[in-house]
Design brief:
Distance between the termini of chain B: 14 Å
Order of helices and strands of chain A: HEHEEHHEHEHEH
CATH topology of one domain in chain A: Rossmann fold
Oligomer: heterodimer
Largest sheet of chain A: 6 strands, mixed
Structural class of chain A: alpha/beta
Radius of gyration of chain B: 15 Å
CATH superfamily of one domain in chain A: P-loop containing nucleotide triphosphate hydrolases
Largest sheet of chain B: 4 strands, mixed
Number of domains of chain B: 1
Largest interface: A-B, 25 and 24 residues
Order of helices and strands of chain B: EHHEHEHEHH
Distance between the termini of chain A: 24 Å
Radius of gyration of chain A: 17 Å
Structural class of chain B: alpha+beta
Chain lengths: 208, 131
């Protein structure tokens, strides 16, 4: 009995001490921007580069032992930022951002590998923040596939509607698309509603 | 309507009834789907894939993009009767699939991204082909 209790307590302590939080979503939703905001706030440095060109993040990048304090409580996270998941990669799409053909092809090749890597990391997460672009249609198959997989694997989810600073942002549409989940509207770039995000992140950690 | 509409080379629709994939393992299902998509077929599958199959399809698609020249990936859509989706695929469903497999089933539509991109640029091409 004592061993059992010890094991349970150890397991709780272990999980709570370094909760693996994955940032998942489609390309250009602002996953790295949000992960950067979090890391800058609590570690004092960014996690990765951001760009308007899709698939800027092409490798999983993470920060260990990020200690966040909110309302007097403290939790330690492993922040895992992942490449955006897409069903298609066309190097020609990168040319309109001014990339040369060779660079665009290289980016496309790396992006395909990044998507595979993202998917492989999925089952290793304790909880996931699904970052969606609030200006885009939330009903895309990629979004539904990501959320469907998290539900199937019983991984707790928080949905973030990013880019609420933009005129055409529609957080309500995201809320309507995923009524079973908490949706927090933020702007990672302009740092809008970040406190609400931390509040929701702590609630998410409780479900782990 | 323009006088001439360039046809989409090699477009064909392929219907897969659920009975045809029911007994297949996840690997066999994905292999079958990708084999057909690589042959430029737009698939209409009766029913829907499980979440782990959908993500496996994306994963294997990316591996193929990396290895097969000119393959850009797939368009994937699941259509259910009460979904308010006004996508290209919804139009396909209304126009075609409804009469083929009935209104009560979900449909999974998978096609090569390059063909879907061409149709999006000029939806009339699809009307012509179906008409």
């Amino acid at each position: 009995m004592l061993t059992f209790l010890k094991r349970v307590l150890n397991s709780i302590f272990k999980r709570r001490s370094n909760i693996k939080i994955g940032f998942y979503g489609p390309p250009n939703a602002g996953k790295t921007s949000l992960a950067n905001t979090l890391c800058e706030d609590w570690v004092g440095e960014s996690l990765g580069a951001v760009s308007e060109v899709p698939h800027e993040t092409r490798e999983v990048q993470f920060k260990e032992k990020v200690e966040i304090t909110h309302k007097g409580k403290s939790l330690t996270f492993k922040i895992v930022d992942t490449p955006g998941i897409a069903t298609k990669i066309d190097y020609e799409d990168f040319l309109k951002y001014g990339l040369k053909k060779g660079e665009a092809k290289k980016r496309a090749k790396e992006a395909t590998q990044g998507i595979i890597e993202s998917i492989r990391w999925l089952e290793d997460m304790d909880a996931v923040v699904v970052v969606l672009d609030a200006t885009q249609n939330p009903y895309s198959q990629v979004n539904l596939t990501i959320v469907g997989n998290l539900v199937a694997r019983k991984i707790p989810i928080l949905i973030v509607a990013n880019k609420i600073d933009l005129k055409n942002a529609q957080t309500k549409k995201i809320e309507a698309a995923f009524p079973e989940y908490e949706v927090v509207g933020i702007s990672a770039k302009k740092r809008l509603n970040i406190e609400a995000f931390y509040e929701a992140l702590f609630k998410l950690a409780k479900k782990v | 309507m323009p006088k001439t509409i360039k046809k989409i080379k090699g477009l064909s629709l392929h219907i897969i009834p659920y009975s045809e994939i029911r007994e297949l393992s996840i690997t066999e299902r994905i292999k079958k789907i990708l084999h057909l998509v690589l042959n430029n077929k737009v698939l209409i599958i009766q029913g829907r894939l499980r979440p782990e199959e959908e993500i496996r399809l994306i994963e294997d698609t990316m591996a193929m993009v990396d290895h097969v020249k000119s393959f850009k990936g797939i368009e994937l859509a699941v259509i259910e009767p009460d979904m308010g989706n006004e996508s290209f695929f919804m139009k396909v469903k209304k126009g075609l699939a409804k009469t083929l497999v009935g209104y009560h089933n979900a449909l999974t539509i998978v096609g090569p991204a390059s063909i879907v991109k061409e149709i999006r640029k000029d939806p009339k091409k699809l009307e012509v082909l179906l008409g």
